[in-house]
């Protein structure tokens, strides 16, 4: 008789060890009682590669199979994204997938909720400042660098600089004027990976995660993200840990954003690494 670690390990089943004690406790808590665990994940950069045109982003080919294998073994799987919920569902290919009947997509940082069980989206009325910003933005961007583009998310508006000749310079040049525009209409600016998003205050992934975890009555939580917008969710997990709920913070690593690395318990290699982690968890819980 030998433990799993005594045998020759199958690389597909390998669960990477978190680098922190809190992370190891979070993983242990999830494995000990998966039926009370919440798996929460960002979409862009975590389940899908970052691409120059956000409309072309699609979930990693292994994401849906891995989630479908894992979801029936845990209390809940939630995708928490700044995108509209229906867009994330479409780009992720999440609808009508056996095994994902109880998947939840919390879009617009939790302002929208899509439930796989019903296929319905529930949401409050949009903030009036978004319409005002939408109307003024073309004038503000008239002299912006070539390659700057806007993305209308319905409940927020994003300005992308990834296609500019100097994406970082364009990003920095637009930060102050966009912040001023947002402030005039009661909005805030959320910076990300070559994107500045103008959205209502109080919408963040941390609030969305806490609300979902508390609604489930979770006994453990894993959160995976890649960008600055994921930091509130990291803070939420850190708060839950101080209150006795084990948590594991996963960073979908990139060279563009390093802030999450400093706080993560475990870093994996982009969406492919996230998918591998989800698959290994599903097999461990078999």
Quick recap:
The chain is of the alpha/beta class. Helix content is 36%, strand content 19%.
Word description of this protein:
The strands form 2 sheets. This protein has an 8-stranded mixed sheet, sandwiched between helices. A 4-stranded antiparallel sheet has the order 6-7-9-8. Strand 3 (104-107) and strand 4 (112-115) form a beta hairpin. It contains 9 helices and 12 strands. 36% of the residues lie in helices and 19% in strands. By secondary structure, it is an alpha/beta fold. Residues 1-12 have low confidence and may be disordered. The two termini are 20 Å apart. It is globular and about 55 Å long. Helix 4 packs across helix 5 and helix 6 packs parallel to helix 7. The longest helix has 18 residues, at 167-184. The chain has helices spanning 21-32, 63-70, 85-92, 128-140, 167-184, 205-216, 231-242, 259-263, 270-284, and strands at residues 37-41, 76-80, 104-107, 112-115, 120-122, 149-152, 157-160, 188-192, 195-199, 220-225, 247-252, 266-268.
The rough form would be described as: globular
Instruction: Calculate Rg over CA atoms.
Output: 19 Å
**What string gives the helices and strands in order?**
HEHEHEEEHEEHEEHEHEHEH
Mean pLDDT reading: 92
Low-confidence stretches: 1-12
Q: What is the percentage of strand-forming residues? A: 15-25%
Structural class, please?
A: alpha/beta
Q: What are the SSEs and their pairings?
A:
Layout: H1 21-32, E1 37-41, H2 63-70, E2 76-80, H3 85-92, E3 104-107, E4 112-115, E5 120-122, H4 128-140, E6 149-152, E7 157-160, H5 167-184, E8 188-192, E9 195-199, H6 205-216, E10 220-225, H7 231-242, E11 247-252, H8 259-263, E12 266-268, H9 270-284
């Amino acid at each position: 008789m030998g433990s799993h670690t005594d045998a020759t390990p199958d690389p597909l089943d390998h669960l990477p060890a978190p680098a922190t004690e809190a992370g190891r406790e979070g993983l242990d808590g999830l494995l000990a009682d998966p039926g009370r665990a919440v798996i929460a994940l960002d979409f862009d950069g975590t389940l899908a590669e970052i691409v120059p045109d956000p409309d072309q982003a699609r979930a990693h080919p292994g994401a849906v199979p891995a989630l479908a294998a894992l979801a029936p073994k845990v209390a809940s799987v939630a995708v928490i994204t700044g995108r509209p919920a229906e867009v994330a569902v479409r780009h992720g290919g999440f609808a009508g997938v056996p095994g994902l009947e109880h998947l939840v997509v919390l879009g617009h940082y939790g302002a929208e909720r899509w439930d796989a069980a019903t296929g319905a989206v529930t949401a409050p009325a949009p903030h009036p400042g978004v319409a005002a910003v939408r109307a003024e933005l073309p004038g503000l961007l008239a002299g912006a660098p070539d390659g700057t583009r806007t993305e209308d998310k319905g409940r927020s508006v994003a300005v992308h600089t990834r296609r500019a000749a100097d994406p970082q310079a364009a990003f920095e040049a637009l930060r102050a004027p966009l912040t001023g525009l947002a402030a005039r209409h009661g909005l805030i600016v959320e910076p990300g990976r070559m994107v500045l998003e103008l959205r209502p205050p109080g919408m963040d992934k941390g609030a969305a995660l806490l609300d979902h975890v508390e609604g489930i009555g979770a006994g453990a939580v894993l959160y995976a993200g890649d960008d600055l917008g994921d930091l509130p969710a990291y803070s939420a997990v850190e708060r839950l840990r101080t209150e006795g709920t084990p948590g594991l913070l996963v960073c979908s690593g990139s060279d563009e954003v390093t802030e999450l690395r400093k706080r993560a318990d475990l870093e994996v290699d982009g969406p492919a690494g996230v998918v591998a982690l989800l698959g290994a968890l599903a097999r461990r819980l078999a």
